[in-house]
Write a structure and sequence with these properties.
The structure is a homodimer.
Chain A (H helix, E strand, L loop, with lengths): L13 H11 L8 E2 L2 H7 L2 E6 L9 H14 L4 E5 L3 H12 L3 E7 L4 H9 L3 E5 L2 H15 L10 H20 L6 E5 L4 H10 L5 E7 L4 H8 L22 H10 L2 E5 L1 H15 L5 H14 L6 E6 L6 H9 L2 H10 L2
Parallel strand pairs in A: 2-9, 3-4, 4-5, 6-7, 6-9, 7-8
Antiparallel strand pairs in A: 1-2
Helix pairs in contact in A: 1-7, 1-8, 3-4, 3-7, 4-5, 7-8, 8-10, 11-12
Chain lengths: ~350, ~350
């Protein structure tokens, strides 16, 4: 993806996340940190869940988009272009509307219909294309044609810092509650949120982990290879975690700061979805539930006391909710039984 | 229902709700007040939703139960007995466990299985019976046999004041946000929560409304008759709103302080459930969704600017979630379309 004009030469640092949090106060929801005794029991550790599904636009992507679009609006730009599997498109569309900018968003032709509908409802021009290569080319062409800069979904310092502000709020709220995190878990698509989490955790004894769906593990392969390594996305219910390759800027941060990557399959994601729905009482999209699925795996190693998870989003089709809620009812019941 | 020992001679007043809020701080979750642009647009007013589905035990019943059981524990009682359609039983079971008291809870044989499982998981002795009359008799007999006082689900000053603290927090948070309520809406089973809301709103220009399922309208009939009037409960998906009769103490408050009652049917409750799930991203039980269903009706009269709703609980079966999420998908989609 093309980068917009003003990235710092060395990428964002912790101070950028703190500055992002200050600038976003009042623009975004200070989402609550939620807990469930049933989830704690199942994990064997304290699990603090930052409910960014309750964010404007239904995901934490609102943070980076608001920061980036706000800076472009202040710089006199009249519009923006974005490419995304969905939530970043929704967030850029909303951020542009708030500031009176035009927005063009490029999405996969098989994007989650609710995400396409939400970006459309926010007044964005919607462009759909089949392959990732086509979408990247379209994004560049539309930016060139309109003169509107691209707000990359993850390879962008404002996006990394903005997404990182969710982790910073979680870290600070956990400290305030007397239960400081020793691990912090984020699902990984392009890696912007995980990179932001690493920056937010800088200087604290918090291990940051990424979670990828099996077969969509560009970050894990990139870390092994020492450079960003694309992976043809495999089928997954986590539609938001399908970018073909981790971003260069996130990778530069993650390769040194990330503790590790956990891979989860659809079954684990679905189980986490049901825990979030029936025990925590909130609706996660599968990409958001992947974070908890990974956290449960990480907690099982027994080295942590308090694990933070950023529940990154909640934009999901009613039909998929019905399917996920109904499947494996027995398994959820057994979790409840474990509470006895 | 039998009443416990120490109700004030004139029933609770606003000061009791304020005192309840002070005593409950730290014992219960200060739940967030949530908003959804899609719900605001549909309602045509600002709708502020107090997410008590995120409360300990999954419902606002935790408040009254914690207050009442705490007082009994301080008074040296070794156990408590409660009768409930479900959430009050869960709440009393949890409150008793926290304080090391024994709990016996009496529920309908057809209570929501998740509620029975949650009360059981909290360590309570579970007793099921078919009819309301049988459950009332059992409750009295078990109280007499054990010497443990009954914590009534609504005809109890601590319960009314405790439930009222949720409304008080909503009222105060709305004022703090610069959007003070002019209406406040609660679903009505035995009337304790609505009575608490009336007390919380005392002295402020806020109209308080109750919402009952069609055919479970004991409060509406009681207001018309001028005295508590039982109604054989009709079938409803709102399992928590099936008490046969409004409580005497709530009725004494509601008959003068309540602005009105709205009746909603299962279809309206299901539509509100889907709005809460897909737009607000939280899981309501049907009884909790009934409040929003009523608020949408009340908002339609065009006299209000900011309507508060206490989303009273979120304990619901996975199978019912699946059914409600899947049904009428077209209707939810049209709501999203309306956002354009």
């Amino acid at each position: 993806m093309s980068r917009i004009d003003e990235p710092g030469p060395a990428g964002p640092v912790r101070a950028d996340v703190e500055e992002a949090a200050r600038r976003l106060a009042g623009q975004v929801v200070r989402t609550p940190v939620l807990r469930s005794p049933a989830i704690d029991r199942l994990a064997g550790v304290r699990v603090l869940i930052k409910a960014e599904n309750l964010q404007h636009g239904g995901s934490y992507k609102m943070r980076g988009a608001s920061l980036a679009v706000g800076r472009l609006a202040a710089g006199g730009h009249g519009g923006v272009v974005a490419q995304s599997t969905g939530n970043h498109a929704v967030a850029v569309a909303l951020a542009a509307r708030w500031r009176g900018l035009a927005a063009t968003v490029v999405l996969p032709a098989d994007a989650a219909p609710t995400k396409v509908a939400r970006a459309r409802a926010a007044g964005a021009r919607i462009v759909l294309a089949d392959t990732a290569a086509e979408r990247l080319a379209l994004t560049r062409e539309l930016s060139a044609a309109t003169g509107h800069p691209v707000v990359d979904a993850y390879d962008h310092p404002d996006v990394i810092a903005g997404q990182g502000s969710a982790s910073l709020e979680l870290i600070e709220d956990a400290e305030r509650a007397g239960t400081p995190l020793d691990a912090l878990v984020l699902p990984v698509g392009g890696g912007g949120g995980a990179a932001g989490a690493c920056l937010a955790a800088t200087g604290r004894p918090i291990e940051v982990y990424g979670v990828e769906p099996v077969g969509c593990d560009s970050l894990a392969r990139s870390l092994a290879a020492g450079r960003p390594t694309p992976v043809p996305p495999a089928p997954t219910i986590a539609d938001g975690l399908r970018p073909a390759c981790v971003g260069k800027l996130p990778f530069a941060i993650l390769r040194t700061a990330l503790r590790g990557v956990v891979r989860v399959d659809d079954e684990q994601i679905a189980a986490a979805f049901r825990l979030l729905l029936l025990e925590l009482k909130v609706l996660a999209e599968p990409s958001g539930a992947a974070g908890l699925a990974g956290a449960l795996r990480i907690a099982a190693d027994g080295r942590h006391h308090t694990v933070g998870v950023v529940l990154t989003g909640g934009n999901v089709e009613a039909e998929l909710v019905a399917r996920l809620a109904a499947d494996r009812f027995a398994q959820v019941t057994s979790v409840e039984g474990a509470a006895a």
